[in-house]
Design a protein that fits this description.
The structure is a homodimer of 156-residue chains. With 156 residues, chain A is an alpha+beta fold. Helices cover 29% and strands 22% of the residues of chain A. Chains A and B meet through β6 of A and β6 of B. Chain A binds a DNA duplex (25 and 25 nucleotides) through α1 and α3.
Chain lengths: 156, 156
DNA sequence: ATCAGTGCAAACGATTTGCACCTCG
DNA sequence: CGAGGTGCAAATCGTTTGCACTGAT
């Protein structure tokens, strides 16, 4: 009846080894959360992460508070990034890997397609912001992905 | 939290008459909410709007639920726009006036400076998005406004 | 007079917190 | 073994809902 002795069933879909960064206590719970983030292809809410962790852990149960505390700990350690979903304001979390900060979001299927190249790389703002020192920016593009566009035009 | 709390009066600073659009029942409560939005210079959360309405109404009390219902009603009528704050995900509301959809947000004083010209207007995305039909976009620029930049450099 | 709009209180969902117990290093 | 992580339950916060009453048109 001890839940503790069961093995965690969260492994990378491509059988890639998950790399657990050093300098942090790797408990069973933290590994499970980290694995979910590792395999994620887009930022996810705490609730979604919580469900995925339980789902992947095959019967294991977790306290919601634990998930939130783990996410805070990860964020403090700089392992993950906390961000607000620009559509509905949901707070989301994402593993810090280099690259893509921007997404094209399909209004139909809600899929988030990462943009590799930042269209703002070469942009400079004009007079109205010359009194403003730019540190960072956030951009999201909305529309319809190829699949959904085809479905919509076929419906007519 | 003693930042620079900018005061917003119920009446237009330039003594402009508030125009209440037709086709909607203008109760005392709705007028109060509309006035706050009319005078706002940036999107505000429901809670902030609620506080401002009570503050400006000099003793009058309002049920929080009323504020939320009014905001929903306004949104359905197309009078206001509901959006997520890109920094912390707070849901905000703003009167629909033409123009400025983008802001430069000061990381220090949290002030939101509207950008009149959309820098995205001249941008075209590259191959990775050619299979994506763009309908809209959202952009925010982060950094330090003139005042805060000066304060920060003076501190050193 | 009618029916949408309101106030109130209770319900709600997501997140946080206090405290006793457990476990990784 | 000890600091720190976890589970649980209760608390909090913003927002929503049901219902009886009120008020704009």
């Amino acid at each position: 009846m001890k839940k503790q002795e069961r093995k965690i069933g969260v492994y990378d879909l491509n059988h890639t080894e998950i790399e657990y960064p050093e300098g942090i206590k790797w408990t069973r719970q933290r590994k499970a959360v980290y694995a979910v983030l590792w395999n994620a292809t887009e930022p996810m809410s705490a609730v979604r992460i919580y469900h995925l962790v339980e789902q992947e852990s095959d019967g294991e149960e977790y306290a919601p508070s634990t998930i939130y505390r783990i996410l805070s700990a990860f964020e403090e350690k700089g392992l993950i990034e906390k961000e607000a979903d620009m559509v509905d304001g949901t707070i989301t979390y994402e593993l810090c890997r280099g690259s893509h900060k921007h997404y094209a979001v399909c209004l139909e299927c809600k899929r988030r397609i990462p943009l590799q190249n930042c269209p703002f790389a070469h942009i400079h703002l004009d007079r109205e912001t010359e009194d403003f020192t730019i540190i960072d920016h956030k951009l999201e593009v909305y529309g319809y992905c190829k699949d959904c566009r085809e479905v919509k035009s076929a419906e007519k």
